């Protein structure tokens, strides 16, 4: 088998890159480890920046988003005795779109199917080879046999645990990491959302988030110890804990009832440098992870995809490799700003086991400053709606 760009990973980053390259006539094959239903069952991101929605339109998959996406002009923050709205639209001129990651992925798969493009699911033992030569290739098990895919370039869109990042040479690759001493328990309710805009609450008992899966279903997150398992959190216990952490008006309106999709995600900041070696380029969670508080993971994956898409287009259309050479530096420059924002918002709103009395005072002062300063709110809003590419 041969293609121009071999894409490892059929998550949102890999699929979006494939679809965008297709618009330029650049051939791709997407290789995914799991079956499609497994990929689509991951309920995660919901907040899409303008940059990502523009890319989805450019990739030709903007129509369902226009119909099903909810435009949000603000968010609410409660904590440290303050409770206020950040008017994203008024402060930045931009909004965010609420549309689940699984729907983005589904739309991209549907577009790929409609064009008859190749996605191989169930690929095991994926291994990149000769990435520092001009004839890289991948080997993998599929359909009961070993396969080889030759290509011009490999795009490693294979998430945090994927094999591509491990191919960076040990004496060159550097990882920067901070793990947080807690996770997020996430659940979906069949009852309508209890809020119209997202509510981020930093209570004395820890963080809580009221979000929405879509217009019909609410989604909720709780900060929990990493030692907890999802089974320890029965429906009733989750509703009670949410009520303790949320402002009274929302606590009193919680619908109760059955919850699904119960999962605990650890919180981590991670960046691998460089994001490029030879003819292999990393995009999205394969290269970096943010704690989810600022809703930046999927959006940062999309900005990588945008840089790589333009760089590959210049290569094939104009024979110009300047974008490819600059890819790692360009993507990392934006990634580090997103890391800073996600780290800051996580520190602002969570309780840390080792937090001193001084740390708590600092957290309260940060919240008080944010509550009272238009400059501080503008900084948050500018990052939340998304920094320019
Ligand atoms: P992934 O989604 O991880 O996709 C990688 C793909 O590669 C997977 O399909 C995987 O199966 C495949 N793969 C792995 N190994 C191999 C292999 N060996 N061979 C072939 N394929 C392989 N982000 C936001 O922007 N906004 C939010 O609101 C938000 N909320 C979040 C809430 C939670 C609770 C969590 C956990 C995350 C959230 N994120 C959010 C982050 C976001 O979900 C991720 O950043 C996003 O999924 C990254 O996309 P990706 O395509 O890079 O990686
Ligand atoms: C969701 C996730 C986030 O990280 C966030 O900040 C807001 C919403 C969500 O999954 O709905």
From TrEMBL:
GO terms for biological process: benzoate catabolic process. PANTHER family: P-HYDROXYBENZOATE HYDROXYLASE, TRK SYSTEM POTASSIUM UPTAKE PROTEIN. Keywords: FAD, Flavoprotein, Monooxygenase, Oxidoreductase. The lineage of its organism: Bacteria, Pseudomonadati, Pseudomonadota, Alphaproteobacteria, Rhodobacterales. InterPro entries: FAD-bd, FAD/NAD-bd_sf, HB_mOase, RIFMO-like. GO terms for molecular function: 4-hydroxybenzoate 3-monooxygenase activity; FAD binding. It comes from Roseovarius pacificus. Residues 2-341 form the FAD-binding domain. This is p-hydroxybenzoate 3-monooxygenase.
């Amino acid at each position: 088998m041969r293609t121009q760009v071999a894409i490892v990973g059929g998550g949102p980053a890999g699929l979006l890159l494939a679809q965008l390259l297709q618009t330029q006539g650049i051939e791709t094959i997407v290789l995914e480890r799991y079956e499609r239903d497994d990929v689509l069952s991951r309920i995660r991101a919901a907040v899409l920046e303008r940059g990502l929605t523009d890319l989805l339109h450019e990739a030709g998959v903007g129509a369902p988003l226009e119909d099903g996406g909810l435009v949000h002009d603000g968010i609410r923050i409660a904590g440290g005795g303050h409770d206020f709205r950040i008017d994203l639209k008024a402060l930045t001129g931009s909004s965010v779109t609420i549309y689940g990651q699984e729907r983005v992925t589904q739309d991209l798969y549907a577009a790929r199917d409609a064009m008859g493009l190749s996605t191989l699911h169930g690929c095991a033992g994926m291994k990149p080879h000769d990435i520092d030569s001009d004839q890289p290739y991948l080997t993998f098990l599929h359909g009961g046999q070993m396969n080889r895919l030759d290509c011009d370039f490999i795009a490693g869109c294979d998430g945090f645990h994927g094999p591509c990042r491990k191919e960076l040479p040990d004496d060159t690759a550097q990882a920067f990491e901070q793990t947080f001493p807690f996770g997020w328990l996430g659940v979906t309710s069949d009852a309508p959302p209890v809020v119209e805009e997202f509510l981020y609450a930093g209570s004395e008992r820890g963080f809580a988030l009221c979000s929405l899966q879509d217009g019909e279903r609410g989604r909720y997150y709780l900060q929990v110890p990493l030692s907890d398992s999802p089974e320890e959190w029965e429906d009733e216990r989750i509703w009670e804990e949410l009520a303790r952490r949320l402002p009274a008006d929302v606590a009193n309106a919680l619908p109760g009832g059955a919850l699904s999709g119960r999962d605990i995600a650890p919180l981590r900041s991670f960046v691998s440098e460089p994001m490029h070696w030879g003819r292999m380029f990393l995009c999205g969670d394969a290269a970096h992870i943010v704690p989810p508080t600022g809703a930046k993971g999927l959006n940062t994956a999309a900005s990588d995809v945008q840089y790589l898409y333009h760089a590959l287009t210049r290569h094939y259309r104009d024979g110009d490799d300047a974008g490819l050479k600059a890819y790692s530096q360009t993507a990392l420059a934006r990634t580090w700003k997103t890391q800073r924002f996600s780290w800051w918002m996580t520190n602002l709103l969570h309780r840390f086991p080792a937090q001193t009395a001084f740390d708590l005072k600092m957290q309260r002062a940060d919240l008080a400053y944010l509550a009272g300063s238009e400059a501080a709110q503008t900084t948050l809003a500018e990052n939340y709606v998304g920094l320019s590419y």
